[in-house]
TrEMBL record:
Keywords: Coiled coil, DNA replication, DNA-binding, DNA-directed RNA polymerase, Magnesium, Metal-binding, Nucleotidyltransferase, Primosome, Transcription, Transferase, Zinc, Zinc-finger
CHC2-type zinc-finger residues: 37-61
Similarity-based family: Belongs to the DnaG primase family.
Cofactor comment text: Binds 1 zinc ion per monomer.
Organism this protein belongs to: Undibacterium arcticum
Enzyme class: transferase
Stated name of the protein: DNA primase
Protein purpose: RNA polymerase that catalyzes the synthesis of short RNA molecules used as primers for DNA polymerase during DNA replication.
Domain (Toprim) ranges: 260-342
Gene of this entry: dnaG
Keyword Transmembrane helix part of the UniProt annotation: no
HAMAP family: DNA_primase_DnaG
Record text on subunit structure and interactions: Monomer. Interacts with DnaB.
Annotated domain remarks: Contains an N-terminal zinc-binding domain, a central core domain that contains the primase activity, and a C-terminal DnaB-binding domain.
Enzyme Commission numbers on file: 2.7.7.101
Length: 599
């Protein structure tokens, strides 16, 4: 768990203009900077970055957030990854569990990681240079319809023949980093003694695999003629885990946003060839089955993912594994589909034979996840007997159990119930589905509280904009707020507690980031403040003081009215009235003094 104090310090040290400016061309527009929004297609700029608030906001699609959330949305990084990336650029060390390691051990780990990364970068440059003087490899790529431009975009290279070609790049060919990065193989004798070292990749077209930051973390090598394996991939290393990485994602990020969907294929060449043919929004798994991590990574980039597989048995098996990986992330606001081409085609050959428009049509008509799931559980059962219907339900049970409770799951349950002559409630009960929907009333909304209005809204908005003002609120102000806005008292308490925890240097960006992590209900207000013009802290302080006085005055007046209505028969009522009237007079004097200071 990263301490909130570190997050605040990080956001204070970095400049969101520099962070966003690495990805978006920004131009001065008044107090803010403006550019084309990277999260939706637009021709005129509606994306603003505020240097004062350290916040971005798009008036077109509503996207907003801090430098951390920008990296998360744009690069598909997780929260911790985004924080680490920003911290590294700011020269800061993230205090996490590994911070407990002795400094020498932690330094050794960081040095090792840097050595592996440097080795991969140097090897990539070497392979790219080798391609320029390899006519056979160039002819092979041209034969596949690839241009020099697309080869350069994906950093394609060539591993020459010879057992130790990398020796030309690494004079210290025996260094441990080469083996740990998967660039070489150490051959040992029967007793386990190291006997010989040689290059892992030889006479292959090289496809560098990049992480979301563009760093080379592995390679895929393809033979140009006969030979096995057709594709040879880097082994698992500290830099590279196949189940977590997608080939081409770094190159495809912007194209995915522009197209509105990501297309997942089965191989490196599919990705490069489709980019050549006008479909740059394509990625591929790395010689392994699709995993839930792959799906999660894609859904950070887009709400619409399409898996494209060959129509043969192998393609169907791959699609089924992708279905299994997708179910934990299937939700009502995400669209996952499956595209099956004729058995004689892969995406590359299909487009070359039938054209881009025909392939686009195939994409539009891809099979929704719900239909594919039902097809999978009913394909081998004709449903004409009780046994067939029971078997279909048996096959469907683990799939539905893997899905989160949602309207989509309920729709699939209803379709399955109709096919197997049961009811949705019976299926939910038999399958022991978590948080059943069909056999129970829908859960109440998270909160029935009304959005804040009037004075309460004014106070909360001022505190979100300038969180340092929370220190000005006393218990009497909070009690007065709770008296007139009990539904929102919890929100105010969260806001005040969070703001005070950030300390005297709290700012809008740090508070917004912390509120986002708590899943609070301030998002609409934060978006509104991000879109609004800047306000002066001192003016906001005076405005807050006035709003608090009004709130306190209203509470005092309400209590006085209650005492008057009681007829002053309650013991001590007279003394309490005098106390309340004295407090009212103090508030009036404070207001008059404030007016005098302004004049």
């Amino acid at each position: 768990m990263i301490p909130q104090s570190f997050i605040q310090d990080l956001l204070n040290r970095i400049d969101i203009v520099d962070v966003v400016g690495n990805y978006v061309q920004l131009k001065k527009g008044g107090a803010n900077l403006m550019g084309l929004c990277p999260f939706h297609s637009e021709k005129s700029p509606s994306f603003t970055v505020s240097p004062t608030k350290q916040f971005y906001h798009c008036f077109g699609c509503g996207a907003h957030g801090t430098a951390i959330s920008f990296l998360m949305e744009y690069s598909g990084l997780g929260f911790i990854e985004a924080v680490k990336d920003l911290a590294q650029n700011a020269g800061m060390t993230v205090p996490e569990n590994d911070d407990r390691l002795p400094p020498a051990q932690r330094a050794a780990y960081q040095a090792k990681s840097l050595a592996l990364s440097d080795a991969m970068t140097q090897a990539c440059d070497f392979y790219r240079n080798q391609l320029r003087s390899a006519p056979t490899a160039i002819a092979y790529l041209k034969g596949r319809g690839l241009t020099g431009e697309i080869a350069a975009r994906f950093g394609l290279g060539y591993a020459p023949e010879g057992w130790d070609s990398l020796r030309a790049v690494f004079p210290d060919y025996e260094q441990s980093a080469l083996a740990e990065a998967g660039l070489v193989i150490d051959k040992s004798d029967e007793e386990g003694h190291h006997r010989k070292r040689y290059d892992r990749f030889r006479e292959r077209i090289m496809f560098p695999i990049r992480n979301t930051k563009g760093q080379v973390i592995g390679f895929g090598g393809r033979v140009m003629g006969e030979g096995e394996p057709k594709y040879l991939n880097s082994p698992e290393t500290p830099l590279f885990q196949k189940g977590s990485e997608l080939y081409g994602l770094f190159e495809a990020r912007q194209a995915i946003r522009d197209a509105g969907y990501a297309l997942v294929t089965e191989g490196y060449m599919d990705v490069v060839a489709l980019a050549q043919l006008g479909f740059p929004q394509v990625v591929a798994t790395l010689g392994t089955a699709c995993t839930p991590t792959h799906v999660q990574k894609l859904l950070r980039q887009t709400d619409h993912v399409i898996f494209s597989f060959d129509g043969d048995k192998a393609g169907r098996r791959a699609a089924r594994r992708a279905l299994d990986a997708s179910l934990p992330h299937a939700s009502d606001n995400k669209t996952i589909k499956f595209l099956f081409l004729p058995t004689e085609h892969d995406p590359d050959s299909y487009i070359r034979e039938r054209g881009s428009d025909a392939f686009e049509q195939q994409v539009r008509e891809a099979m929704p996840l719900s239909q594919f799931l039902l097809n999978e559980v009913t394909a081998d059962n004709n449903l004409s007997s009780s046994e067939d219907r029971a078997r279909a339900q048996f096959d469907a049970k683990p799939l539905l159990q893997a899905m989160p409770p949602s309207a989509l799951r309920l729709q699939i349950v209803r379709s399955l119930a109709q096919l197997t002559q049961t009811t949705p409630a019976e299926i939910e009960s038999l399958f022991e589905l978590s948080k059943p929907i069909a056999r129970a009333k829908l859960a109440p909304p998270r909160s029935n509280r009304q959005p804040p209005v009037g004075l309460e809204r004014q106070i909360m908005r001022l505190l979100v904009t300038h969180p340092v003002l929370a220190a000005d609120l006393d218990q009497a102000a909070i009690a007065a707020f709770a008296h007139f806005a009990p539904d929102n008292a919890e929100m105010l308490q969260l806001l005040v507690t969070t703001s005070k925890a950030l300390g005297p240097h709290a700012n809008f960006a740090a508070l917004a980031e912390q509120l986002r992590q708590t899943g609070s209900e301030f998002d609409a207000m934060i978006a509104e403040i991000a879109a609004d013009t800047e306000s002066e802290p001192e003016s906001a302080r005076l405005e807050l003081a006035g709003a608090v006085r009004q709130t306190k005055m209203q509470k005092l007046t309400a209590e006085l009215n209650e005492l008057s209505a009681s007829g002053l028969n309650v013991e001590g009522a007279g003394a309490r009235m005098r106390e309340l009237m004295l407090q009212q007079e103090q508030l009036r004097q404070e207001a008059q003094a404030e007016i005098a200071r302004r004049v």
